[in-house]
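Before the break, one more example. Copy the sequence into your notebook; we will annotate it together after we see the structure.
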Amino acid sequence: MAVKKSHYEASLAEYSNNLAAIALLKQHRPYLEMIPSLRRPDESLITIPLPIVRFRGNATTDTQITCLPCDIAMIMCDPEWKIKTGVEILLFIHRPHEDFSDLLGRWRKTQVLLDKDYEWLMPLRHSHILSDGANTICPLFVVFTETSERIQKGLVGAELPFIIQAPSFLIEEEIQQGLEANR
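Here is what the structure looks like once it is written out:
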């Protein structure tokens, strides 16, 4: 069974919410521990779906803006000082018709792009936060029960963390579609 576009879209929409993103990180404890304050998690994590970064030029080059090939950027923020910390988690959701080399290639391209001096284009509500690049960039992959075993084996072999999802919001959506189809 192949990954459906609705799986990808539902996950992208779900994890764009910072509280849902924190719930996802609870499934990978090392990343959950990177959140500056678990007592104030909603102020400690900023999610940026389909993130955009601005590369700073020098005196001879202009700044450049680009959309990263990751799906969601999770920016850690100190809730007291309202400043970005040095850790960023980049979420890569398995897309329909994407094989291992495509998924891994998105992470590799992101690594190359973020090897320059950059800043995040922050959501309006967080635009006051200084958003310069990170000290640590960590990838996290979301795959589905329908994702081929080859992709899971590849992620294990590449020593990249991933979470297998069969989210309830996807199951509920499929049940509803099945009920409507049977009418």
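The radius of gyration is 17 Å. Residues 78 and 166 are 32 Å apart (CA to CA). Try to locate both features in your own notes.
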